[in-house]
C-alpha cells in the first residue's frame, strides 16, 4: 500500500475531535457509562469530578479541558440532573461507585437553581407568545350604525361622603432595609484544592469547593455539581 493511501484510510486526530457540547457528552457516556447518561434519571456527581476526568482523559485528543468544563456545566445545570440532587442521595465517581451523600444545604441549593431555571424558561415562553400575538394582523375597527351610538355621559360624581373618605392610604410600616453582607477576599495562600469558598454569581454569594488552581484562574464546583472557572478576585472567604 502506498503511503498516500495509508494516510487516506487512517483517521486523523482532527476527525475524531468533538466539536460541540452534545458530542462531548455523548463521548463521556460511552467512556463512563456508570457515571453519565443522556436520558432518564441522572446521578449526582462527586465533588471534584472534573479533575478526575482531566486525569483520565489526559492523553485523549477527543476532548479538551475547556470542552470538559463546558460539558459538565451543561450537564449539571440540566433539569433532570438538578431534580436528582436530593438530600441523602449518594454522589458517584467516574466508575459509578457511590461516595458521600448530599446534605440538606446542597439539596436546597439545587432546588433553588432548578426553580429559577424553570421560571426563566416560563418567562421566555411568555415573551415568545406575546411576540407572536403582536405579529398577528389586527382586525380593523368598523363604525357602528348611527342608532347604536350614544352620547357621552358625564362621569358619575361621587357623593360628598364618598369624597371625604377618598384619602391616600399611607403605609404604617416601611419595608425592612436589607443589610449588605461584607465579603472578605480569599488570599492566595488559601487557594487550596478541596477548600470551601464563596463565589458571587448574580446577587447572592454561593458556596463552592476549589477543584483546580492555575495561576490567577480558579476552577470551583458548586453544591449542585456545576463546575465554574473564575478569577481569584471573584472568590471570598466562606
From TrEMBL:
Q: Read off the InterPro entries from this record.
A: ProQ (IPR023529), ProQ/FinO (IPR016103), ProQ/FinO_sf (IPR036442), ProQ_C (IPR035236)
The principal localisation class reads cytoplasm
Cite the SMART domains for this sequence: ProQ
Per UniProt, the keywords (alphabetical) are: Chaperone, Cytoplasm, RNA-binding
Where is the protein situated, by its record's location annotation?
Answer: Cytoplasm
Q: Where is this region: Disordered?
A: 116-169
Function of the molecule: RNA chaperone with significant RNA binding, RNA strand exchange and RNA duplexing activities.
Q: Which NCBIfam families match?
A: PRK04950.1
The record's comment on protein family reads: Belongs to the ProQ family.
Matching PANTHER family: RNA CHAPERONE PROQ
Q: What is this protein called?
A: RNA chaperone ProQ
Q: Can you name the source organism?
A: Rheinheimera maricola
Amino acid at each position: 500500500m502506498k503511503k498516500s493511501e495509508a494516510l487516506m484510510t487512517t483517521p486523523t486526530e482532527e476527525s475524531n475531535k468533538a466539536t460541540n457540547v452534545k458530542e462531548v457528552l455523548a463521548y463521556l457516556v460511552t467512556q463512563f457509562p456508570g457515571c453519565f447518561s443522556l436520558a432518564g434519571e441522572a446521578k449526582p456527581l462527586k465533588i471534584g469530578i472534573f479533575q478526575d476526568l482531566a486525569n483520565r482523559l489526559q492523553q485523549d485528543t477527543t476532548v479538551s479541558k475547556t470542552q470538559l468544563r463546558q460539558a459538565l456545566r451543561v450537564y449539571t445545570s440540566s433539569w433532570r440532573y438538578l431534580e436528582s440532587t436530593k438530600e441523602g442521595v449518594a454522589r458517584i465517581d467516574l466508575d459509578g461507585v457511590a461516595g458521600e451523600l448530599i446534605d440538606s444545604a446542597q439539596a436546597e441549593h439545587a432546588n433553588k437553581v432548578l426553580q429559577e431555571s424553570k421560571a426563566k424558561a416560563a418567562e421566555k415562553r411568555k415573551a415568545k407568545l406575546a411576540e407572536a400575538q403582536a405579529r398577528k394582523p389586527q382586525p380593523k375597527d368598523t363604525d357602528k350604525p348611527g342608532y347604536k351610538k350614544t352620547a357621552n355621559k358625564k362621569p358619575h360624581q361621587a357623593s360628598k361622603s364618598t369624597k371625604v373618605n377618598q384619602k391616600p392610604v399611607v403605609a404604617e410600616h416601611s419595608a425592612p432595609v436589607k443589610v449588605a453582607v461584607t465579603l472578605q477576599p480569599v488570599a492566595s495562600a488559601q487557594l487550596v484544592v478541596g477548600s470551601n469558598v464563596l463565589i458571587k454569581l448574580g446577587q447572592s454569594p454561593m458556596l463552592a469547593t476549589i477543584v483546580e488552581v492555575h495561576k490567577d484562574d480558579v476552577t470551583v464546583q458548586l453544591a449542585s455539581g456545576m463546575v465554574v472557572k473564575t478569577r481569584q478576585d471573584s472568590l471570598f472567604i466562606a
